[in-house]
Amino acid sequence: MEYIAGVDIGNSSTEVALVRNSDQYEFVASSLFQTTGLKGTVKNVPGVVNALERAAETADIAVDDIDRVLLNEAAPVIGDVAMETITETVITESTMIGHDPSTPGGNGLGTGTIVDIATKPEDHPDAESYIVVVSEEIDFAAAAETINDWADRGMDIQGAIVQKDDAVLINNRIDREIPIVDEVSRIEEIPLGQPAAVEVAAQGSGRTIDQLSNPYGLATLFDLSSEETQKIIPVSRALVGNKSAVVIKTPAGDVEERTIPAGSLTIIGEGGNSISVDIDQGADEIMEQVEGMWPIDDIRGERGSNIGGMLSRAREQMAEITGQAIEEINIRDVMAVDTLVPQAVEGSVASEHSMETAVGLAAMVKTSELPMQQIADELEDRLGIEVSIQGVEANMAILGSLTTPGTDVPFAILDMGGGSTDAAYINDGKEITSVHLAGAGDMVTMLIDSELGLDDREIAEGIKKYPVAKAETLFSIRHEDGTVTFLDEPVAAETFGQVVLLKGDGQLEPIGVDASVEKIRRTRRQAKEKVFVRNAKRALRQTTPTENIRYHSFVVMVGRSALDFEIPEMISDALAEYGIVCGRGNIRADIGPRNAVATGLCLSYVGSQSDLAGTIPDGLATEVGWTQLTGDGGS
């Protein structure tokens, strides 16, 4: 009895297909386990062992009953964000800081000199108007009483800035309606005696502020010059769409500006030609240059810039893990997408952020074959089983995908995982062309995390994987598409009024995100469009002799991301205009789009010896498997 295991080490998960040979070869088990460590490094070994143990348990054998383990060639992919600009607000005589609370009180626009409500009226120099600051030591009732008293004394109180969540309580107790913002955590940072403006849109009007979100409005209120107006754009832009805000003109020199350039990429082709492209030209220009220089030998970033730092970290990380010299590690592909990320405003009083344009970048780091051989050697030492590196992921995925009912050559596959998008095309002559590209599910998670300002990768991953809804009442939820579902049981108390993930089986998980269902859905779909749809087209172009997507007739989608509830549909819609038939694979007619590479590894090894009964039509396991085993037609 002979057992052979194909092991696919991915960025997020490690998959195993187990084959038994008695009278004939047959698949007897599959398994899945989380990848340990960075893909393509020795730290993957514990995850591989766990996946093998699960497969062996399913087949009712011990791991040491396995005769041979076949590994894929695993190339690591490292994703990061390269900022177009990092400007921690402005450094001029009129540096500004802004704040947007979620529970303001009153309405209107007020301007005046900032004073502490805990002081006495006679302590303040004569001013036309005042904005009072209320620290957490001041009770809301006492604050309201003081505001009424000062107004009776003839002081023009135009607005209030409150540390606690007391804006509505104070507004309900004062004789005159003024704009009040609250939840200003670092209220001690507010410079007393400086001019400020507070604006609150009328409650229930559906309107947002218009003066403080307009740079010319700020210029009018604070008498700014044209140069100063240019430099307060980050503040006004950060407040667009808000229902309330406060902006303070701080003393000169209080805040310093720090700008780190985005930098430029130098793309080096295999022929030695190179071209440079500035990051701030945007993702479209970057990707156009990357595709124009394909195939790529290396990509380098400008020193002292964001992109230079990112790519240097990627090389250093791989050098440390693999023990290779940094100069031996090349970056063979990048995936760039335009995005928005929240940047902290220096000098802020409540951790304010400004949304800045950025370029999200995933880089594929190519090392020598040494790391994979290290994994094979470590597995052999630990398990006492013969381990070999069998083939390239995309090529193995072709073999595995051929077990999908209704497939036949020629056709193409898209293997969409966590870190990379692989594509392969097999022609009538059983020759395989493949490509391995940076950017997949992990990059989508990164974009969702950045654009929604979550700073929580787990929540971002949930938003990527599941639809969202809002628990509008105790017995109803409103879905993304506007439809309403009525429930037999009331929602949990912590779920009421919250945006929730719909995880199936009626499970509602509140995510605590301060964004509407519409915004979350739009951000999620745009991220998937930018990464998966673009990468699918890029991959299919590069696997055809003519670089024309229309060359393909049939495309099978496999991999973790092919299980997503909307990615396959988005790609199918995008490819429909080219007349391409596209759908999810069903590996071995049983297990859906997963396990294609692991299955293909087994087929590649045994295909020249025996067909796996009923898994591939017309003896293609033998023909294609032998082609791959001997290297004929592979890329």
| Rg over CA atoms | 30 Å
* CATH architecture grouping of the domain at 91-249: 3-Layer(bba) Sandwich
What structural class results from the helix and strand content? alpha+beta
Portion of residues in beta strands equals 25-35%
Strand arrangement in the largest pleated sheet: 7-13-12-8-9-10-11
CATH topology of the domain at 91-249: Glucose Oxidase, domain 1
The CATH first-level class of the domain at 91-249 comes to Alpha Beta
Low-confidence stretches: 79-96, 253-258, 608-635
Counted by DSSP, the helix tally is 16
Mean pLDDT: 81
Q: Please give the alpha-carbon distance between the first and last residues.
A: 34 Å
Percent helix, as a range, is: 25-40%
Number of strands: 30
Q: What sort of overall outline do the alpha carbons produce when their principal axes are compared?
A: elongated
Compact summary:
By secondary structure, the chain is an alpha+beta fold. Among the domains are: 1-75 and 369-396 and 591-620, ATPase, nucleotide binding domain (Nucleotidyltransferase, domain 5, 2-Layer Sandwich), CATH 3.30.420; 79-86 and 258-366, Ribosomal Protein L22, Chain A; 91-249, Glucose Oxidase, domain 1, CATH 3.50.30.70.
Helix-strand layout with pairing:
Layout: E1 2-9, E2 13-21, E3 25-34, H1 45-58, E4 68-73, E5 77-83, E6 85-87, E7 96-99, E8 108-116, E9 130-134, H2 140-152, E10 157-162, H3 167-171, E11 180-181, E12 195-200, H4 215-222, H5 226-231, H6 233-238, E13 244-249, E14 259-261, E15 264-269, E16 274-278, H7 283-292, E17 296-301, H8 306-322, E18 330-344, E19 353-366, H9 370-383, E20 386-392, H10 393-401, E21 411-416, E22 420-426, E23 432-438, H11 441-451, H12 457-465, E24 468-473, E25 476-479, E26 484-486, E27 499-502, E28 508-510, H13 517-542, E29 554-558, H14 567-576, E30 581-584, H15 596-606, H16 620-630
Parallel strand pairs: 1-4, 4-20, 8-9, 9-10, 10-11, 21-29, 29-30
Antiparallel strand pairs: 1-2, 2-3, 5-19, 6-14, 7-13, 8-12, 12-13, 15-16, 15-17, 18-19, 21-22, 22-23, 24-25, 24-27, 25-26, 27-28
